[in-house]
Design a protein that fits this description.
By secondary structure, the protein is of the alpha/beta class. Helix content is 46%, strand content 16%. The chain has 12 helices and 13 strands. The structure holds zinc ion. The site of zinc ion (ZN) has 7 residues, from loops.
Length: 332
């Protein structure tokens, strides 16, 4: 048993309280590699932002859960080395799909876990979330739950259709499950292809897809029913078109990749939305930089040569999200 406190990590309770009161959101960045971890920490330290580093099932399969846990511990020490004496870094399990995996992560130093029972019947979702909450709270670990289904494909979650969270359920669900935060479905979506062309309109000037707007009416209705309760948005990458263009320009093929417009995420950050999950944008930033570098330097083969600009590009993207979209800069 390793407590996250021994590793210098923090849970999300204080972060969320301040974020809801202050009208900003905490960035939750997924990580799988050392370069992502370094870029996240550099961005958080430079902007003086709290940050959630999250680990999906796919990340555990790729990098190994134990390695990722030590990387998070390394992230805390790295932040200190970069001149941040008290970094606010949470290590979060993204989309835990059983009590057992949540428990395993809590026992191994995670400070926050998600139990995603959104595909289960309502009562079953409450029952397992409650069981996770009881175990987690005994170790001062915070728990995110989910109501409503997001469309899209991520490492471990895939759904062809979405259904919006029903505002009439959120009060009962949050009270009875005891969760600390709630992921809701209001039109965000997992992956780099969040919407089909049929769901979008097309900008006549650029020919790019314009996605349907988020359901702010549902968000406001939820806020009214559970005032001040921390709300989480998954699937909130913006799929920056300059990165998509770079990828396509240098041999990639990502036609019609489309995300959530950043203005809408900025708007959501001002509400009770206090955690915004971003994964695909980091993948795009990394891939765009690597494709460009290798195309321009065909004779290079040292991974450090192309991973360095990849790391720089991810860092730039993380800083942009923190400062221009979520507003969590200067909140340490
Ligand atoms: Zn998700």
């Amino acid at each position: 048993m390793t407590s996250y406190k021994e590793l210098g990590l923090v849970n999300t309770r204080e972060m969320f309280k301040k974020a809801v009161a202050g009208g900003y959101a905490i960035p939750a960045f997924n990580f799988n590699t050392m370069e992502q971890m370094q870029a996240i920490v550099q961005a958080a330290v430079e902007t003086k932002s709290p940050v959630i580093m999250q680990v999906s099932k796919g990340a555990r399969a790729y990098a190994n859960g134990t390695i990722l846990r030590y990387m998070a511990q390394g992230a805390v020490e790295y932040a200190k080395e970069l001149g941040c004496p008290n970094p606010q870094i949470a290590l979060h399990l993204d989309h835990g799909d059983s009590f057992e995996i949540c428990k395993e992560c809590i026992d191994n130093g995670f400070s926050s876990v998600m139990f995603d029972g959104s595909a289960l019947p309502y009562e079953e979702n409450i029952a397992i979330t409650k069981k996770v909450v009881e175990y987690a709270h005994a170790h001062d670990v915070t728990v995110e739950a989910e109501l409503g289904v997001l469309a899209g494909v991520e490492d471990e979650v895939s759904s062809a259709v979405s259904h919006y969270t029903r505002p009439e359920e959120v009060e009962d669900f949050s009270k009875r499950s005891g969760c600390d935060s709630l992921a809701i479905s209001i039109g965000t979506s997992h992956g780099a292809y969040k919407f089909t062309p049929e769901q979008c309109t097309r900008d006549p000037k650029t020919g790019k897809l314009v996605p349907p707007p988020l359901a702010f009416d549902i968000l406001h209705e939820i806020e009214k029913r559970i005032p001040g309760f921390p709300i989480v948005l998954h699937g909130s990458s913006s799929v920056p078109q300059d990165e998509v263009d770079t990828i396509n320009q240098f041999g990639g093929k990502l036609p019609d990749a489309v995300g959530i417009p950043e203005e809408q995420l900025r708007e959501a950050s001002k509400s009770a939305v206090c955690k915004i999950n971003i994964d695909s944008d980091s993948r795009l930033a990394m891939t765009a930089a690597i494709r460009k570098y290798l195309a321009e330097n065909p004779g290079h083969f040292d991974p450090r040569q192309y991973l360095k600009p990849a790391r720089e590009n991810m860092k730039k993207m993380y800083i942009h999200k923190i400062v221009d979209v979520l507003g969590s800069n200067g909140k340490l």
